[in-house]
Amino acid sequence: MINFDNQFSNILEKYNKIETSLNQMSNQDSDNLIKLNREYAELKPIVDKIEEYKNQKNEIQNLNELLKDNDPEITKIAEIELLEKKNLIKILEDELLKLLIPKDKNDKKNSILEIRAGTGGDEASLFAADLLSMYQKYADINAWNFEILSISETGLKGVKEVICNISGKNVFSKLKFESGVHRVQRVPTTESSGRVHTSAATVAVLPEAEEIDIDLEEKDLRIDVFRSSGPGGQSVNTTDSAVRITHIPTGIVVSQQDEKSQHKNKAKAMKILRSRLLDNEIQQKNKERSEQRKTQVGSGDRSERIRTYNFPQGRVTDHRINLTLYNLTEILEGKIEDLIKPLIAEEETKKLAEIKNE
């Protein structure tokens, strides 16, 4: 059983330290001020719930004293109130447990979504386009802003690769489980014999990094400019507006050429680079914490097959939690909440079990 007293003392100590720091900090230290205010805002509802819990515990103690009273009227009232308070304590404990689940600090961030056609030729590109449409529609349902940063299309309305920026409320918390290999089983329109083909696309969802998250130094970057090219390699612009940024320490390379302005291409490339570097850090930490990683729903590994979309059966299967749904048409229309909610619940259940065993 969870030791609430230990948890409470650690949280209250941290909360008080942050409160003291905020009172003493000057407005000039803006980066730290933003960070501490975020932490303070996250701890505030937990601290309020702890105070409520402690008050109810004190009232139970007082009611237990009243049970010793010689007046039967008083003891009867105390017994009734005590039962109510004990039920309320159980509710508060459940609420506290949920609040104490370790939060992913990136959950509230916007996201960079990358989709790449995998094995399967033209059919894989068409499936990548289906996934892009699915996430666009899901973004619309959630009233998120969906911006395509760069896209490489095929002549058959397929997508070789697309990078998007999705912004809105709690984007990463809902989309982070989408990273991995998505597999499709269907009869291609070009298949005359009606044989089912299997192809795949890779999805990567990265938390959008802010400057406060990733500090990029000029000496670590190599920035090349060149003329953007269209299909067949022909030059699209007559100026060197395309930008390629290489992060020398990691070897990560980002190219942007969709905008006519070199400045806009550079800004987009920097946004993607920061997010890839932040994701790189997260992946490294996950590897180091191998025990913790076992508690996560999937490893976030891009090569891990996470889901199969079977068109002949109208079925979608998420392999991480053995969930099968028979509403493929609705899911492709962006109604993927029925897939996302069970994944979030599974992760919360495992984290709760961890807390209880501490």
Short structural description:
This protein has 358 residues and is an alpha+beta fold.
- Give the CA-based shape: flat
* Mean pLDDT figure: 84
Alpha plus pi helix count? 9
Oligomer state equals single chain
Strand content: 15-25%
Q: What level of helicity do the residues show?
A: 40-55%
Task: Give the class from helix and strand content and strand pairing.
Answer: alpha+beta
Computed over alpha carbons, the radius of gyration is 26 Å
Note down, in words, how this protein is organized.
The chain has an eight-stranded mixed β-sheet. It has a three-stranded antiparallel β-sheet with strand order 6-7-8, with helices on one face. The model is unreliable at 231-235 and 290-295 (pLDDT under 50). α2 runs antiparallel to α3 (72-100). The protein is built from nine helices and eleven strands. It is an alpha+beta fold and 358 residues long. It starts with a helix and ends with a helix. Helices cover 47% and strands 20% of the residues.
What are the SSEs and their pairings?
Elements: H1 4-24, H2 30-66, H3 72-100, E1 111-117, H4 121-141, E2 145-153, E3 159-167, H5 171-175, E4 180-186, E5 197-207, E6 221-226, E7 242-247, E8 252-256, H6 262-288, H7 290-293, E9 305-310, E10 315-318, E11 323-325, H8 328-332, H9 337-356
Parallel strand pairs: 4-9
Antiparallel strand pairs: 1-3, 1-5, 2-3, 4-5, 6-7, 7-8, 9-10, 10-11
